[in-house]
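hey so i finally got around to running the thing on that chain from the lab meeting. sorry it took forever, my laptop kept dying and i had to restart like 3 times. anyway pasting the input first so we r on the same page abt which one it is
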Amino acid sequence: MTDFKKIEEEALLEVLHAAESYEEAALYNTEKVMQAFRKHMVSDFYLKPTTGYAYSDVGREKLDEIYADIFKTEAALVRSQFVSGTHALAVALLGVLKAGDEVIAATGAPYDTMQTIIGVPVKTPGSLTDLGVVYKEIPMIGSQINLEKITAAITDKTKMIHIQRSCGYSSVRKTLRIEEIGTICKAVKAIKPDIICFVDNCYGEFIEKQEPTEVGADLMAGSLIKNLGGGLAPTGGYIVGRKDLVELASYRLTAPGLGGEMGATLGDTARELYQGLFLAPHIVLQAVKTAIFASAVFSRLGYQVTPSANDRRSDIIQTIRLETKERLCNFCIAIQKNSPVDAHVVPVPAIIPGYQDEIIMAAGTFVQGASIELSADGPCREPYNVYFQGGLTFEHGRIAIMSAAKMVGEK
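ok and heres what got predicted. didnt touch it at all, straight out
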């Protein structure tokens, strides 16, 4: 008979041991956010709503400047008008790339929803390839980047290198660390100095002390209902990077000539974005501790986990190879049952726009789809990996994981 109490106690000790470096990063990143807030003299009137065209929305403009400071970039575009991280990524890519330009995916096949933006392998109206952008994909070697093939693939027409930081739905690759992203950027710029290094930074913010834009990334995008929203942002996304590139993206979000000069901040959104950013380093730490705990528990139940509890992490995602559809569904059912919202709902696999297979998702969250909140999902395909992430509090994560462990059982 499985001794779940012993497994829980041992897993807690692993969290205590492994979390120290992430606690240091949370402290460092909290200070970084505070310094930016002080520099830009954040005041109560920054947190007020605006309407209509919202010209001279000081709160919106200052938040852009704060993000640029935090990510050490020339410019930022932080908007509630981004409907998702995927939208922010699409705006960045479609704003910068034109017909005849070439983009190389340096980290193999991207996340499912990114494939619809690119238009590969399934043709999508309005996608990059549909508009005449040339796409190349360099597979990773297991969990390692193939730097030799990446650099060999660069031509005169290559305008951009696409780097996905997180593992996505890959059952093989790992999330890239900051220094690995820096290695890619340095190598491709040695071949073609004007190449644009674009990073999909979803799930990775505030895990480490540095961000990809500090090691060579020219443009980067992500979601506000993941790490940077701190569990408070109700929607939105961000783009940071070189001023000219961010400006091109802003024209795609609104209209040429308007760019980031417009866009109302409705309701209480400004306060939620500012306060969420302030809380983000601490909330990310809670999510990392929850992921470490999940890894420690399920490895003791005999399952393959990536990363292991003691591996160095660069995002909040924990992958658990459950090997059967039944276990995948049971895991998600347990997470949903232990959620603060819609705990009475039973998740089932379904086809969701942007995905190639049936997906099962557990997300009893205060903000719909917010993966900084405790959530789990996975495609119903072999090897039936569940991708677990988030957790506003470690206590909640601990309760939910132990429930999932009991429902799934030993391998």
